[in-house]
Amino acid sequence: xxxxxxxxxxxxxxxxxxxxxxxxxxxxxxxxxxxxxxxxxxxxxxxxxxxxxxxxxxxxxxxxxxxxxxxxxxxxxxxxxxxxxxxxxxxxxxxxxxxxxxxxxxxxxxxxxxxxxxxxxxxxxxxxxxxxxxxxxxxxxxxxxxxxxxxxxxxxxxxxxxxxxxxxxxxxxxxxxxxxxxxxxxxxxx
Length: 190
Hints:
This protein is α+β, with helices and mostly antiparallel strands. The protein has one domain. It has two helices and six strands; from the N terminus they run αβαβββββ. The strands form two sheets. It has a four-stranded antiparallel sheet with strand order 3-2-4-5, covered by helices on one side. It has a two-stranded parallel ribbon with strand order 1-6. Helix 1 runs antiparallel to helix 2. It is elongated, with a radius of gyration of 25 Å.
């Protein structure tokens, strides 16, 4: 065998060893990138669900207890395969009012089996609104919160803003368009 042939074989062997050493890192990077993509897509879907559902709720002129089943079903339809109701997710719709200068959560409805709590508080309590937002006297604000369980892959969790992500949560705040929506009527829609 001549010398150039041996040198060529040696170079091919070195390239194979180098590739074998680098391949696991390339695969980890690709998997982490895929996981970050899935996480961001889920976050965008949850945000879209909160916004779309808030728009739907504010178009009602009055709300009845029976309307919430359809609203929670609509939230899950908007979210697609991302769980926003049931054991792995939650949709919380609240009506916040300002009566004579006092803000309170007038009513609050949670999707069945929801484990998440509201970031604004509970019905009857003073709301914890972002940036100390104050409603005008007599004003009503509809708050729609959507949450889903999320657990990024171990290696891509370090690429996330917080390393212990266990859920994705967002909210949308809208004022009613047609009615006051300061209260929920009992029973079914006539």
